[in-house]
Design brief:
222 residues; 42% helix; alpha/beta
Length: 222
């Protein structure tokens, strides 16, 4: 189930969107302002963020800026600000789309689902590709250069995390949190060992997983 964060200071609107999305198969967390949203994002990975602009404490522009410093999760602004200047500012900060209030819940859902599909590089077949590597997110199968690759569950989850964040440097700590979970008591050596086995399993395509000195790992197209 896709996991969406709804950041909106109007309680009734938060609840309406959450209930509608849940009825259509999406799990939702709620935040009342930007500061609460950033707190939630430290503990959870989201498939998309629905973000109001006019909020107390920290507005949507500030949240968008903070999110884009660390990741590429799709951001869709929910806003009463429909002026061109505000939209351009949002796009400059890295938002993916806008919905202006009042909006259709059906349109909001469709836009959100489209952003999630696009961010994952998946279509109806559930395929996610980067260079010579292809993952089927429905069957959890992997191929490299057109040949099937046998991966352990942990190797698959690690590769999936790298694929969904391709081109982005992920630290060992981030990979531990995303793949092993917050309760894991090991250290970055567990990541290094699993990266080595994953590269070996992928053969030549294993070279797409780049080591970034003193930082972590990044998946590249070639």
């Amino acid at each position: 189930m896709e996991h969406v964060l709804i950041v909106e200071d109007e309680p009734r609107l938060r609840s309406i969107v959450r209930d509608y999305f849940f009825a259509h198969g999406l799990e939702c967390d709620l935040a009342r302002d930007g500061e609460e949203a950033l707190d939630l994002m430290r503990d959870h990975d989201y498939d998309a963020i629905l973000l109001d602009i006019l909020m107390p404490n920290l507005d949507g522009f500030g949240v968008c800026r903070a999110v884009r410093e660390k990741g590429t999760v799709p951001i869709l602004f929910l806003t009463a600000l429909g002026g061109e200047e505000d939209m351009l500012r949002g796009y400059e900060l890295g938002c993916d789309d806008y919905v202006t209030k009042p909006f259709s819940l059906a349109v909001l859902l469709a836009k959100t689902q489209a952003l999630i599909r696009r961010s994952r590089g998946t279509g109806d077949a559930g395929l996610l590709s980067c260079g010579a590597i292809t993952l089927n997110t429905r069957s959890r199968l992997c191929s490299s250069g057109g040949k099937d690759v046998k991966l352990s569950p942990r190797e698959y989850d690690l590769l999936l995390c790298l694929m969904r964040n391709r081109g982005q440097v992920l630290t060992r700590e981030q990979l531990l949190d995303k793949v092993w979970g917050l309760d894991f008591e090991g250290d970055g050596r567990a990541v290094d060992a699993r990266i080595r086995s994953l590269r070996a399993a992928l053969g030549e395509a294993g070279g797409q997983i780049k080591t970034v000195f003193k930082s972590g790992y990044r998946l590249e197209e070639v």
